[in-house]
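Supplementary Methods. Inverse-folding protocol.

Structures were first reduced to a discrete structure-token string of length 640. This string, shown here, constituted the complete conditioning input.
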């Protein structure tokens, strides 16, 4: 249409310079439209074909080029949606392939598989695929977030620039709403990890974030005292980071927020009332839980804060007000809950480890990849120091019965180089909900309602009939989940799989397995493979014992040969020294020595002959020692 207007304009006397400029602009427009058509064609070609065969990286590049060439918004949006669908289908297909060959579930099964395949390479490649899959999903999320922010910014600009759209007050309200939504970012997912005491919640989270002991664990008692939030340390400058390049940032950070003193004093008033009788005097001992649950809980809480036996130090008929006044004036508690900067709550910050923001070390720690041995060792040392620093606030301090700080803590937040959380997830490690300590129990129940997702943890040995898993969510809470449409946000996690016995699994589940074609045969095949692997392991253990005994025998022989060579050398040196002294004293002295060899033959050696024989014996024993020692070292290397 523009080209059709050039000739009439030229005939009407439009200046030649203007016509030439129009022709140049038309040529530019023609080239841009041609590039846009080519970009659109390449984009459609990149997304064509079966989903599992599409090259996602090439499609992303084609999408970026199409966006640069200003391809129509509808085409871009459709292509982006199709790319998301293709990525999801490929992820599901990859997951199905991974599930087709189940990973080893016990130490002995890993022995069998390692004999048949290069499992280390497979594990490494699988980890690489998982990392790429996670990075791709995270990149998609942040790309979508960027698009949404651009749309909101454009919408806000149009609202502010168009006075006839609505009244000034209404437009300001709309613009403010756009700004508010734009600042939200990716919604945070808070996952509460619940379960009975000792089922392995903290061990599960330690394994998930890749730390050996970021959270306290124990095989004999409840460990988690206060609820603990685990977050990614964005200060390292990874996704969403706010660090300024060049300054030092902490690798591990902890934020411990205590209750406000006024809140604790109000709670203390109620607790003292619960441990006192209706006459206003202190109870003689801790009330029984089955008769006075509130009084029992209050007594336990006060002993945790002020130390075991603290209430028993009061007189039997101590007045309620006197008990409150004395406990409220406790210097340790007041100092702990009084902020020094005038804030509402006392907040304690702990840090371990420092790296330069934007450096290669910070990037490696944030991504979890590319750590050399030195940085890995340093990271473990920082983690150990960090665990020691936070122990008094999430576990316990001192000996049993000492006054604890954790009942006075409102929230504990830990941030570290845990790349599994870098997309915004927050894991909350809660105390056991069926803990014998009623205070820890109530901590878990209180934080449960603030979580957007719930993981119910149970040991796999009793997961089917685990009482804790069944009673964990009360009827009222389950009803609320159902009404809010959040029932799908509850997941069940089985731990302690290393405690399983293959024979017990087969005995308990072979009938159910027979109902699905091929499952019983697969279980039987795996059972036989593990049996063969166990037999091979026993055989190797016996061979190892035999080789170790052989090496020890060779070591003893080498030591004996060394001792014999040392004695022969000593005798030769003494004989030579004595002979030389006699010669120097005035001529060769006649020395006779009868020597019996191994065959019983007796020979007589005189003077120098005796010295030469002893030197020869020294050389022989030395060679025997060398031979025995060489054999020992060779066998030891073979055994190793």
């Amino acid at each position: 249409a523009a080209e059709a207007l050039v000739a009439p304009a030229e005939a009407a006397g439009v200046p030649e310079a203007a016509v030439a400029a129009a022709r140049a602009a038309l040529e530019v427009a023609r080239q841009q439209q041609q590039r846009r058509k080519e970009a659109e064609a390449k984009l459609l070609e990149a997304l064509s074909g079966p989903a599992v065969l599409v090259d996602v990286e090439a499609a992303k590049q084609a999408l970026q080029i199409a966006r640069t060439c200003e391809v129509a918004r509808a085409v871009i949006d459709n292509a982006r949606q199709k790319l998301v669908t293709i990525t999801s289908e490929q992820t599901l297909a990859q997951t199905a392939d991974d599930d087709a060959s189940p990973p080893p579930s016990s130490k002995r099964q890993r022995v069998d598989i390692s004999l048949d395949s290069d499992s280390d390479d497979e594990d490494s490649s699988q980890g690489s695929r998982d990392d790429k899959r996670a990075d791709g999903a995270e990149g998609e999320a942040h790309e979508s977030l960027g698009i949404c922010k651009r749309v909101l910014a454009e919408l806000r600009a149009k609202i502010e620039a168009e006075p006839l759209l609505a009244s000034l007050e209404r437009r300001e309200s709309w613009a403010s709403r756009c700004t508010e939504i734009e600042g939200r970012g990716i919604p945070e997912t808070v996952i509460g990890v619940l379960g009975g005491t000792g089922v392995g919640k903290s061990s599960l989270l330690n394994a998930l974030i890749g730390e050996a002991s970021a959270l306290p664990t124990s095989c004999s008692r409840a460990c988690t005292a206060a609820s603990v939030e685990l977050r990614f340390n964005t200060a390292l400058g990874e996704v969403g980071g706010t660090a300024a390049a060049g300054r030092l940032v902490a690798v591990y950070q902890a934020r411990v927020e205590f209750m406000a003193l006024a809140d604790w004093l109000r709670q203390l008033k109620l607790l003292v009332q619960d441990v006192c009788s209706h006459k206003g005097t202190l109870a003689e001992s801790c009330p029984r839980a089955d008769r006075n649950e509130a009084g029992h809980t209050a007594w336990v809480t006060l002993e945790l804060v002020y130390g075991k036996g603290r209430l028993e130090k009061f007189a039997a008929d101590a007045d309620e007000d006197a008990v409150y006044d004395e406990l409220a004036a406790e210097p340790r508690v007041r100092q702990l809950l009084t902020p020094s900067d005038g804030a509402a709550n006392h907040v304690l910050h702990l840090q371990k480890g420092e790296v330069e923001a934007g450096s290669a070390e910070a990037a490696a720690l944030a991504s979890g990849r590319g750590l050399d041995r030195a940085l890995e060792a340093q990271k473990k040392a920082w983690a150990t120091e960090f665990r020691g620093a936070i122990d008094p606030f999430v576990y316990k301090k001192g000996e049993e019965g000492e006054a604890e700080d954790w009942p006075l803590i409102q929230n504990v937040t830990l941030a570290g180089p845990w790349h599994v959380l870098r997309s915004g997830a927050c894991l909350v490690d809660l105390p056991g909900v069926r803990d014998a300590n009623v205070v820890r129990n109530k901590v878990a129940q209180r934080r449960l309602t603030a979580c957007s997702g719930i993981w119910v943890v149970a040991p796999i040995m009793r997961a089917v009939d685990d009482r804790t898993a069944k009673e964990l969510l009360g009827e009222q809470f389950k009803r609320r989940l159902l009404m809010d449409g959040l029932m799908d946000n509850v997941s069940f996690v089985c731990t302690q799989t290393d405690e399983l016995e293959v024979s017990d699994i087969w005995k308990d589940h072979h009938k159910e397995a027979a109902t699905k074609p091929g499952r019983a045969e697969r279980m039987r095949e795996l059972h036989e493979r593990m049996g063969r692997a166990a037999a091979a392991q026993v055989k190797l253990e016996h061979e190892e014992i035999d080789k170790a005994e052989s090496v020890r025998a060779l070591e003893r022989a080498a030591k004996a040969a060394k001792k014999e060579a040392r004695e022969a050398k000593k005798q030769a040196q003494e004989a030579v020294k004595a002979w030389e002294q006699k010669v120097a004293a005035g001529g060769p002295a006649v020395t006779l020595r009868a020597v019996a060899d191994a065959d019983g033959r007796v020979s007589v050696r005189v003077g120098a002959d005796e010295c030469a024989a002893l030197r020869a014996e020294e050389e022989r024993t030395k060679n025997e020692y060398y031979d025995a020692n060489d054999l020992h070292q060779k066998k030891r290397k073979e055994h190793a």
